[in-house]
Design brief:
Elements lengths: L1 H8 L5 H13 L9 H13 L9 H13 L13
Helix pairs in contact: 2-3
């Protein structure tokens, strides 16, 4: 019975895993080798599940969200700098 349960949940293909490694290798190049795991995970999720092209992205909203985040972080546009 245990063997039957294992056979039912075992993946029959490694395509999903191989796709993940392929996307990881596209993102994490030699110049980006010190990237943190959280950043790599976020970029992989965007590539896999994100919008299909730039037409789907609301850049104005993204910039406004970045500015709000920057006010409470150590970005160059943080509390010590003013927006131009």
């Amino acid at each position: 019975m245990n063997l039957a349960h294992i056979c039912m949940i075992q993946c029959s293909s490694t395509a999903i895993c191989e796709r993940g490694f392929s996307i990881q290798n596209i993102i994490k190049t030699k110049n980006r080798s010190s990237m943190k795991t959280k950043t790599l995970d976020s970029l992989m999720r965007i590539l896999i599940e994100g919008p299909n092209g730039f037409g789907d992205v609301d850049f104005e909203n993204a910039i406004n969200l970045w500015k709000v985040e920057a006010e409470t972080s150590r970005h160059i546009y943080g509390p010590t700098m003013r927006y131009v």
